[in-house]
Amino acid sequence: MKKQKHDGGFVAMSVGAGLLIVLVMASMAARYMGDYLKSREWQVVAMQTNRFTQAASSYVGRYYPTVLASATTTTPVVVTTQMLKNTGLLPASFSETNSYGQQYQAMFVRNQQNQELLQGMVVSRGGHAMPFTALNQISKDITAGFGGYVEDGQTAVGAMRSWRIALSSYGTSTGRGHLAVMLSTDDLSGAREDGDRLYRFQVSGRPDLNRMHTAIDMGGNNLNSVGTVTASNVAAQNGNFGVSLVSNGPVTAGGDIRSTGGWIVTRSGKGWMDETHGGGLYMSDNDWLRILNNKGFYTGGEIRGGKVRSDGNVSVGGVLDLDQINVANTYCPKDGSVSRTATGAPLSCQSGIWVGGAKINSNACMWVSSPDAWVNPGPRQFYKTAYCPTGYIQTGSRFMLWPKGLDDEHVDVYCCPLS
């Protein structure tokens, strides 16, 4: 019987070959994974560069006249990440550096062919230099402006060597292994037009696109279907309010204030006041309409009321007319009241009765003669005196003389009774 022969060397060689293949594949996988992670890192750097470049372009669009006034063809206006954060064009959380520790700056100068226009260059500074593979890939992924990189520290080169510009043209320089983005005159002019355009709709993150930075002239046209108008001042020829006008402060009018269908309503004891003379009308309780500052009330017309009262004297420049007629010896409600009869005779209320004044009864008048003369012995003076009886009043008199030697004078008085 033959013995089987074991080929141990072949087995060992097979195992070794398998292990070698595994090691080679693991090495390749590790390299591919490293390349993939690097590629992802470069994509992030490209996106970060795009965002900074877009913000820098928007900054110029917003402040174009200011930047243009400060820049020359060789001296740039420098825009930093912090400036873009301060103006709200970049969020506060935006990183100041990329993964290589490089910081971004944008330089803007006047275009040498047309100095009323701007051109710009974004470069990265400091940090660690990037390898060419990274520069080449990142520059291709930059979509804002024209992506590129700096090989020798003096010249910016476009992706796939599509353009080449000396950094000295923008008054700047940086080290090799850094990024560069060219912003052409057309790019910045477009950003300016974007900043000058008033958008009809809200743009997320761009409130400036819905904001006017100067006066707007409507050319006599209307603004229709407006919700709320918020303003510091409103100057208008005319105003028409369909419901109400509310003011938390004074309302000043250069002409009349007129209500065509309602009241002029005041509150809290206020009313109308003449500022020049300090008079006016107001109410401080539910009963009386008062004159401000106790001014007088004057009119050349008529004042009429249900009852007129004076707490002081009453002076009448003309006659006092009493319209109400009462009858003497009838009831009156208040002592001291004054009235008149139908013929105009005065009446006064005394003890609740209308009492009239005295009246001459001309139908019962008579002559009353004086008695004989009497003498005052001292100075030898003679007197003749005639008196009206009680209840009569003298309304006339007469005097007569007779021949000497008799009672030669005679005096009579004409007396009428009072009724």
TrEMBL record:
<feature type="domain" description="Bacterial shufflon protein N-terminal">
    <location>
        <begin position="35"/>
        <end position="352"/>
    </location>
</feature>
<dbReference type="InterPro" id="IPR029017">
    <property type="entry name" value="Enolase-like_N"/>
</dbReference>
<keyword id="KW-0472">Membrane</keyword>
<protein>
    <submittedName>
        <fullName>Shufflon system plasmid conjugative transfer pilus tip adhesin PilV</fullName>
    </submittedName>
</protein>
<dbReference type="InterPro" id="IPR007001">
    <property type="entry name" value="Shufflon_N"/>
</dbReference>
<keyword id="KW-1133">Transmembrane helix</keyword>
<feature type="transmembrane region" description="Helical">
    <location>
        <begin position="9"/>
        <end position="30"/>
    </location>
</feature>
<keyword id="KW-0812">Transmembrane</keyword>
<dbReference type="Pfam" id="PF04917">
    <property type="entry name" value="Shufflon_N"/>
</dbReference>
